[in-house]
Amino acid sequence: VIQECYVQNTAREYAKIYAAEAEPLEGFGEVPEIIPIFLVHRPANNIPYATVEEELVGEFVKYSVKDGKEVNFWRRDSEAGQKCCTFQHWVYEKTNGSLLVTDLQGVGMKLTDVGIATLAKGYKGFKGNCSISFIEQFRALHQCNKYCEMLGLKSLRSTHQKQRKPTSMKSKTLPNSPAIKKTVPKKAREPRDFISSE
Fold first, then answer.
1. pTM of the model
2. Which UniProt keywords apply (predicted)?
Protein backbone atom coordinates (compact mmCIF):
# COMPACT_ATOMS: atom_id res chain seq x y z
CA VAL A 1 0.00 0.00 0.00
CA ILE A 2 2.87 2.37 0.83
CA GLN A 3 4.53 1.52 -2.52
CA GLU A 4 1.25 2.22 -4.36
CA CYS A 5 1.07 5.70 -2.79
CA TYR A 6 4.74 6.35 -3.48
CA VAL A 7 4.45 5.36 -7.16
CA GLN A 8 1.28 7.32 -7.88
CA ASN A 9 2.41 10.45 -6.06
CA THR A 10 5.83 10.31 -7.77
CA ALA A 11 4.10 10.07 -11.15
CA ARG A 12 1.87 12.97 -10.07
CA GLU A 13 4.92 15.18 -9.50
CA TYR A 14 6.16 14.42 -13.04
CA ALA A 15 2.66 15.21 -14.37
CA LYS A 16 2.75 18.63 -12.67
CA ILE A 17 6.06 19.53 -14.34
CA TYR A 18 4.72 18.23 -17.69
CA ALA A 19 1.61 20.42 -17.26
CA ALA A 20 3.73 23.49 -16.52
CA GLU A 21 5.59 22.98 -19.83
CA ALA A 22 2.61 21.92 -21.97
CA GLU A 23 -0.26 24.19 -20.86
CA PRO A 24 1.34 27.48 -22.02
CA LEU A 25 1.81 26.09 -25.57
CA GLU A 26 -0.70 27.50 -28.03
CA GLY A 27 -3.26 24.86 -28.99
CA PHE A 28 -2.12 22.24 -26.46
CA GLY A 29 -5.15 22.62 -24.21
CA GLU A 30 -5.96 20.55 -21.14
CA VAL A 31 -3.26 18.28 -19.73
CA PRO A 32 -3.74 14.88 -18.04
CA GLU A 33 -3.66 15.03 -14.23
CA ILE A 34 -2.71 12.16 -11.95
CA ILE A 35 -4.91 12.47 -8.88
CA PRO A 36 -3.28 12.25 -5.43
CA ILE A 37 -3.57 9.11 -3.35
CA PHE A 38 -3.39 9.21 0.46
CA LEU A 39 -2.36 6.57 2.98
CA VAL A 40 -4.72 6.18 5.93
CA HIS A 41 -3.86 4.36 9.16
CA ARG A 42 -6.82 2.57 10.79
CA PRO A 43 -5.43 0.87 13.92
CA ALA A 44 -8.79 -0.54 15.06
CA ASN A 45 -9.40 -2.28 11.71
CA ASN A 46 -8.30 -5.80 10.66
CA ILE A 47 -6.55 -4.14 7.70
CA PRO A 48 -4.73 -1.25 9.41
CA TYR A 49 -3.75 0.66 6.23
CA ALA A 50 -5.83 1.81 3.30
CA THR A 51 -5.58 4.29 0.46
CA VAL A 52 -8.03 7.09 -0.21
CA GLU A 53 -8.42 9.09 -3.40
CA GLU A 54 -10.94 11.19 -5.28
CA GLU A 55 -13.81 9.20 -6.82
CA LEU A 56 -13.72 9.40 -10.61
CA VAL A 57 -17.20 9.41 -12.13
CA GLY A 58 -17.69 8.57 -15.80
CA GLU A 59 -16.34 6.10 -18.34
CA PHE A 60 -13.10 4.56 -17.04
CA VAL A 61 -10.60 4.11 -19.89
CA LYS A 62 -7.15 2.48 -20.05
CA TYR A 63 -4.95 4.70 -22.21
CA SER A 64 -1.93 2.44 -21.84
CA VAL A 65 -1.23 -0.93 -20.31
CA LYS A 66 1.71 -2.11 -18.29
CA ASP A 67 3.08 -4.53 -20.91
CA GLY A 68 2.51 -2.27 -23.93
CA LYS A 69 1.17 -5.13 -26.09
CA GLU A 70 -2.53 -4.34 -26.06
CA VAL A 71 -3.84 -2.43 -29.07
CA ASN A 72 -5.87 0.40 -27.64
CA PHE A 73 -7.75 2.71 -29.99
CA TRP A 74 -8.63 5.10 -27.14
CA ARG A 75 -4.91 5.63 -26.73
CA ARG A 76 -4.33 6.49 -30.38
CA ASP A 77 -7.56 8.21 -31.38
CA SER A 78 -8.67 10.25 -28.36
CA GLU A 79 -7.18 13.55 -27.24
CA ALA A 80 -6.65 12.20 -23.71
CA GLY A 81 -4.97 9.07 -25.11
CA GLN A 82 -2.60 11.05 -27.32
CA LYS A 83 -1.72 13.39 -24.46
CA CYS A 84 -1.03 10.39 -22.20
CA CYS A 85 1.33 8.99 -24.86
CA THR A 86 3.04 12.37 -25.05
CA PHE A 87 3.35 12.46 -21.25
CA GLN A 88 5.03 9.03 -21.34
CA HIS A 89 7.40 10.23 -24.08
CA TRP A 90 8.14 13.43 -22.15
CA VAL A 91 9.00 11.52 -18.94
CA TYR A 92 11.11 9.03 -20.90
CA GLU A 93 13.08 11.88 -22.52
CA LYS A 94 13.42 13.93 -19.28
CA THR A 95 14.89 10.92 -17.46
CA ASN A 96 17.15 9.88 -20.37
CA GLY A 97 15.18 6.65 -20.84
CA SER A 98 15.58 5.63 -17.18
CA LEU A 99 11.94 5.99 -16.07
CA LEU A 100 8.53 5.54 -17.69
CA VAL A 101 5.06 6.17 -16.27
CA THR A 102 2.89 3.23 -17.36
CA ASP A 103 -0.64 1.89 -17.02
CA LEU A 104 -2.24 5.30 -17.56
CA GLN A 105 -5.98 5.02 -16.94
CA GLY A 106 -8.86 7.06 -15.62
CA VAL A 107 -11.82 9.21 -16.59
CA GLY A 108 -11.11 11.86 -19.19
CA MET A 109 -7.95 13.72 -18.21
CA LYS A 110 -7.99 12.51 -14.56
CA LEU A 111 -5.75 9.48 -14.11
CA THR A 112 -5.26 7.00 -11.28
CA ASP A 113 -3.65 3.65 -10.41
CA VAL A 114 -0.58 4.29 -12.58
CA GLY A 115 2.64 2.30 -12.60
CA ILE A 116 6.28 3.26 -13.04
CA ALA A 117 9.01 1.27 -14.75
CA THR A 118 12.67 2.09 -14.12
CA LEU A 119 15.94 0.63 -15.27
CA ALA A 120 17.23 -2.16 -13.03
CA LYS A 121 19.35 0.23 -10.95
CA GLY A 122 16.38 2.58 -10.51
CA TYR A 123 16.38 6.30 -11.16
CA LYS A 124 17.70 8.83 -8.61
CA GLY A 125 17.14 6.35 -5.78
CA PHE A 126 13.61 5.45 -6.92
CA LYS A 127 12.66 1.96 -8.11
CA GLY A 128 9.40 1.48 -9.95
CA ASN A 129 6.83 -1.28 -9.59
CA CYS A 130 6.91 -2.48 -13.23
CA SER A 131 9.40 -4.47 -15.29
CA ILE A 132 12.18 -2.78 -17.28
CA SER A 133 10.71 -4.53 -20.35
CA PHE A 134 7.93 -1.91 -20.36
CA ILE A 135 10.55 0.75 -21.13
CA GLU A 136 11.93 -1.32 -24.01
CA GLN A 137 8.44 -1.98 -25.39
CA PHE A 138 7.50 1.69 -25.15
CA ARG A 139 10.67 2.67 -27.01
CA ALA A 140 9.85 0.17 -29.76
CA LEU A 141 6.08 0.84 -30.06
CA HIS A 142 5.59 4.55 -29.37
CA GLN A 143 4.34 6.62 -32.30
CA CYS A 144 4.77 10.35 -31.91
CA ASN A 145 1.70 12.54 -32.35
CA LYS A 146 1.07 16.27 -32.74
CA TYR A 147 1.47 16.85 -28.98
CA CYS A 148 4.95 15.25 -29.00
CA GLU A 149 5.82 17.63 -31.84
CA MET A 150 4.42 20.65 -29.97
CA LEU A 151 6.73 19.84 -27.02
CA GLY A 152 9.70 19.31 -29.36
CA LEU A 153 10.24 15.70 -28.26
CA LYS A 154 12.72 13.64 -30.28
CA SER A 155 11.37 10.69 -32.27
CA LEU A 156 12.09 7.36 -30.60
CA ARG A 157 12.14 5.58 -33.98
CA SER A 158 15.58 6.91 -34.94
CA THR A 159 17.12 6.33 -31.49
CA HIS A 160 15.64 2.81 -31.31
CA GLN A 161 16.95 1.90 -34.77
CA LYS A 162 20.45 3.19 -33.91
CA GLN A 163 20.54 0.93 -30.85
CA ARG A 164 19.69 -2.19 -32.84
CA LYS A 165 22.57 -4.41 -33.94
CA PRO A 166 23.29 -4.37 -37.68
CA THR A 167 21.60 -7.26 -39.46
CA SER A 168 23.60 -9.86 -41.31
CA MET A 169 23.68 -9.62 -45.10
CA LYS A 170 23.21 -13.39 -45.56
CA SER A 171 20.49 -14.43 -47.98
CA LYS A 172 17.74 -16.66 -46.67
CA THR A 173 15.49 -19.03 -48.58
CA LEU A 174 11.93 -17.81 -48.36
CA PRO A 175 9.06 -20.29 -48.34
CA ASN A 176 7.57 -20.81 -51.83
CA SER A 177 10.47 -18.89 -53.38
CA PRO A 178 11.66 -20.41 -56.68
CA ALA A 179 15.15 -18.92 -56.45
CA ILE A 180 17.43 -17.03 -54.13
CA LYS A 181 20.20 -14.58 -54.93
CA LYS A 182 23.69 -15.72 -54.10
CA THR A 183 25.74 -13.28 -51.99
CA VAL A 184 29.29 -13.56 -53.30
CA PRO A 185 32.13 -11.01 -53.37
CA LYS A 186 32.40 -9.22 -56.77
CA LYS A 187 35.69 -10.90 -57.79
CA ALA A 188 34.38 -14.42 -57.25
CA ARG A 189 31.04 -13.79 -58.98
CA GLU A 190 30.24 -16.27 -61.71
CA PRO A 191 28.17 -15.43 -64.79
CA ARG A 192 25.24 -17.30 -63.23
CA ASP A 193 23.90 -15.19 -60.30
CA PHE A 194 20.96 -17.36 -59.32
CA ILE A 195 20.77 -20.89 -57.99
CA SER A 196 17.63 -22.95 -58.34
CA SER A 197 16.04 -23.89 -55.03
CA GLU A 198 14.94 -27.28 -56.38
1. 0.74
2. Cell membrane, Disulfide bond, Immunoglobulin domain, Kinase, Membrane, Repeat, Serine/threonine-protein kinase, Transferase
